[in-house]
Design a protein that fits this description.
This protein has 113 residues and is α+β, with helices and mostly antiparallel strands. It has one domain (5-104): 2-Layer Sandwich (HIT family, subunit A), CATH 3.30.428. The protein has 2 helices and 5 strands. It has helices spanning 5-10, 58-74, and strands spanning 18-21, 25-29, 37-43, 82-84, 100-104. Strands 1-2-3-5-4 form a 5-stranded antiparallel sheet, with helices on one face. A hairpin with a 3-residue loop joins strand 1 (18-21) and strand 2. The protein is globular and about 35 Å long. It starts with a helix and ends in a 9-residue tail after the last strand. It binds adenosine monophosphate and zinc ion. Residues 5, 16, 28, 30-32, 40, 86, 92-95 line the site of adenosine monophosphate.
Length: 113
C-alpha cells in the first residue's frame, strides 16, 4: 500500500495539519474544507473502503468512532456535527484509504440525509 496518499500522511512522508493521533487513528484537516471544521478521521491500518471492513480490522474502525467525539469536542462542535463516508466511485471516493469526514462549525442545513 506504499502508493497510498493517506498512508504517506500517516507516516509523515507528506505533511498534514494533524489534529489528533492515537495508536490506531490519525486525524488531520481536509485540504479542501467544506465547512469551518472539516477533519478527516483515518484508521492507521490501510483499509481500502467501507466495503473492506471485516472482523479482522473492525477494531481500527471502532477506534475511529471512539476518537470522533473527542475530536469534535476539541474542535468546539458542541452543537453537533456530521460524519460522512464516501464508499466507491459513485459516491465520490477519491482516496482509497477508508476515512470519515468530520464536518461542522456551521448550520449543516442542506441535508443529503
Ligand atoms: P473522498 O472524496 O471521500 O475520498 O475524500 C478525500 C478527501 O481528501 C477530499 O475531501 C480531499 O479534499 C482530501 N485530501 C486530498 N488530499 C489531501 C491532503 N494532502 N491533505 C488533506 N486532505 C486531502
Ligand atoms: Zn493507505
Amino acid at each position: 500500500m506504499n502508493d497510498c496518499l493517506f498512508c504517506k500522511i500517516i507516516a509523515g512522508e507528506i505533511p498534514s495539519s494533524k489534529v489528533y493521533e492515537d495508536e490506531k487513528v490519525f486525524a488531520f484537516r481536509d485540504i479542501n474544507p467544506q465547512a469551518p471544521v472539516h477533519v478527516l478521521v483515518v484508521p492507521k491500518q490501510h483499509i481500502d473502503s467501507a466495503n473492506d471492513i471485516s472482523a479482522e480490522n473492525l477494531d481500527s474502525v471502532a477506534a475511529c468512532f471512539r476518537a470522533i467525539p473527542a475530536i469534535a469536542a476539541a474542535e468546539g462542535l458542541s452543537d453537533g456535527y456530521r460524519v460522512i463516508n464516501n464508499c466507491g466511485k459513485a459516491a465520490g471516493q477519491t482516496v482509497m484509504h477508508l476515512h470519515f469526514h468530520l464536518i461542522g462549525g456551521c448550520e449543516l442545513g442542506e441535508k443529503i440525509v
